[in-house]
Design goal:
Length: 357
């Protein structure tokens, strides 16, 4: 018994932006981007919103599961580019879907969001089942059997289009799955979550509050993240407040390669399976070089890794669920397969999850 994935979907904006298009706005080239990242194109939302992308992905996942919005008890949305702080992105998607029975909230674990979201949603379902099965474990809580787990990002809103080191990397899109309690299937077998202090603030997006002057005293200040955390950059200065993705690529690369290997090893050990038993790996799509490195280090052939980055770029909290959808669609995941999802990113977060399809 456990939580099983019974539906999956994704949604992409219409506009395709190629590397050559990027070379028209910053000093870059198709050759550099492909060689360093594996990215060829990314989608950018002109008409679409985080809400519309998340809702479309969720609708596709529901259709794939053969379920109606009313069947859903819980919606968890992972995002760093929500359309609003309040209501939550999940609440906006719930409204659009008409999921009248669901409770909804957001979760921010940056690019590892999909792993954290799947873990949190399945834990809530498992706890709900445990509280009702008469075993006396846990307090009485909402009855939950089915959850929509949605990753939705419009990173183009928080991208600095003058910074070639970051703007060529990111894209927009959404992915979703339906998790359902199953009395007979094992579903999710194990998870591993970790937070490593980002002491040098190597991956950040400052909050973007437009504060009007407070009419008493000296007014309200808006500190940069560097001031809040009392951390300075390499020149000994606080970074200015900047509501865009800012990344020290090499430092994050170093963290990512170590984190993906650690999470992959740990989760398989917890699941009681060997790495060679994993039929398909769904990694966070940040860089094809990171995926190749991890494949070699973990000894899981590159051919078993779902690589979707070429056409979407890095879509942060959406990436693993979008790639998971691609893997199902291409027939790479068959019933009974052991599948590993693994992610890393801002926070610094990392984690992995193994399920039996
Ligand atoms: O999703 C969250 C987690 N994110 C990640 O895991 C990303 C991890 N980091 C990376 O994937 C890589 O570090 C990047 C793809 C971001 C960068 O690749 P890199 O091989 O680490 O390049 P670099 O930052 O060391 O830059 C190498 C050179 C520099 O020029 P110099 O100093 O050697 O003359 C950069 O200025 O490439 C230059 N450069 C570019 N050149 C052309 C940086 N960005 C670009 C660009 N086009 N877009």
């Amino acid at each position: 018994m456990g939580c099983k994935i019974v539906g999956h979907g994704k949604a992409l904006p219409e506009l395709i932006v190629s590397n050559d298009d990027m070379a028209k706005i910053v000093d870059t080239s198709d050759e550099w981007i492909v060689e360093r990242t594996g990215i060829h194109n990314r989608r950018i939302a002109l008409e679409e919103t985080t809400t519309s992308l998340g809702t479309d992905a969720a609708r596709n996942a529901l259709a794939d599961a053969g379920l109606a919005a009313d069947d859903i008890d819980l919606i968890v949305c992972m995002t760093i580019s929500a359309d609003a702080v309040v209501p939550s992105q999940a609440a906006l998607i719930k409204m659009q879907l008409g999921a009248s029975n669901a409770v909804a909230f957001d979760l921010n674990a940056a690019c590892t969001g999909c792993i954290y979201g799947m873990d949190v949603a399945s834990t809530m379902i498992e706890a709900s089942v445990a509280s009702e099965d008469g075993s006396g474990i846990g307090h009485r809580r909402n009855a939950m059997r089915r959850a929509l787990v949605v990753g939705a990002e419009r990173l183009s809103r928080i991208t600095d289009w003058t910074d070639r080191a970051t703007c060529v990397l990111f894209g927009d899109g959404a992915g979703a799955i339906v998790l359902e309690w199953d009395d007979n299937a094992p579903g999710i077998l194990a998870s591993f979550l970790k937070n490593t202090d980002d002491e040098a603030l190597c991956l950040t997006v400052d909050a973007n509050h437009d504060l009007r002057p407070f009419p008493f005293g000296d007014g309200v200040r808006m500190e940069s993240l560097g001031e809040v955390m009392d951390i300075r950059n390499d020149d000994g200065e606080f970074w200015p407040q900047l509501p865009y993705i800012r990344m020290h690529g090499q430092r994050v690369f170093k963290f990512a390669t170590a984190a993906i290997v650690e999470a992959g090893r740990e989760v398989c050990e917890r699941a009681g399976i060997k790495l060679e038993d994993v039929a398909c790996v769904i990694p966070h799509q940040a860089n094809d070089r990171i995926i190749r490195f991890a494949a070699k280090k973990l000894g899981v052939p590159y051919e078993r890794w779902q690589v979707s980055i070429g056409e979407t770029g890095n879509t942060s909290a959406s990436s693993v669920l979008m790639a998971l959808h691609d893997a199902y669609e291409s027939g790479r995941i068959r019933p009974g397969d052991f599948v590993m999802c693994v992610g890393f990113g801002g926070g610094l977060t990392s984690g992995a999850l193994v399920f039996e399809a």
